[in-house]
């Protein structure tokens, strides 16, 4: 039985979510603040399969909870549930390592659909996305080297830490190297969101990858924008300067 941890300080909302998750056959636990969530995840011997996380929490924000999880190497899927609806809030949440973002008030059917989607796309206890290529465990391009198993990333002589979502996006590019990938495909396959959703998350994350991996981010050679078509990752540019 999949175990979902709900981190929500509005007790009536937390109880309602828990009730509906249990009605769908999930095991659900609720806590009211960030430190309690991190402690519960640490102590839970069977692991947590999904985290439903509010952003505005007493003492420790949901952003900080996400940051702490990813810094600890935990790849538990995180669904943000928040009244904050600005694009900056979404971007900050994704940068912290969140997988999906749902604004309050929300429709119960949409919440349950997203829960099912995250649990289907990802294995229990935060394993890698089902169907992801198992053939590429390590990959190098330019002056960079990535170990997708250990999450170690090296650019030149420096070690770089990527969030789980940045690493997931990078892996999707590597697995589809050379192919033009439409923006809606990235939203569906990497963010597990509807491809029609109006969000600049892919653009922001690709700018982040360029800043990390490109010698000159203003003139990218590996992470290319194909106008009106999408994005393309090129490991070895056709023309070396």
Kindly identify the CATH topology of the largest domain.
Answer: Rossmann fold
How many discrete structural domains? 2
Low-confidence segments, ≥5 residues, pLDDT <50? 123-135
Global outline: globular
Within the largest sheet, what's the order of strands? 2-1-3-4-5
How would you name the oligomeric state of the polypeptide chains in this document? single chain
Radius of gyration: 18 Å
Structural class: alpha/beta
Cα distance, first to last residue? Answer: 55 Å
Number of strands: 12
Proportion of strand residues: 15-25%
CATH architecture of the largest domain: 3-Layer(aba) Sandwich
**CATH class category label of the largest domain:** Alpha Beta
Can you describe what's shown?
- This protein is α/β, with parallel strands linked by helices and 241 residues long.
- The protein folds into 2 domains: 124 residues, Rossmann fold (3-Layer(aba) Sandwich), CATH 3.40.50.2300; 96 residues, Arc Repressor Mutant, subunit A, CATH 1.10.10.
- The chain has 8 helices and 12 strands.
- Helix 1 links the parallel strand 1 and strand 2.
- Helix 2 runs parallel beside helix 3.
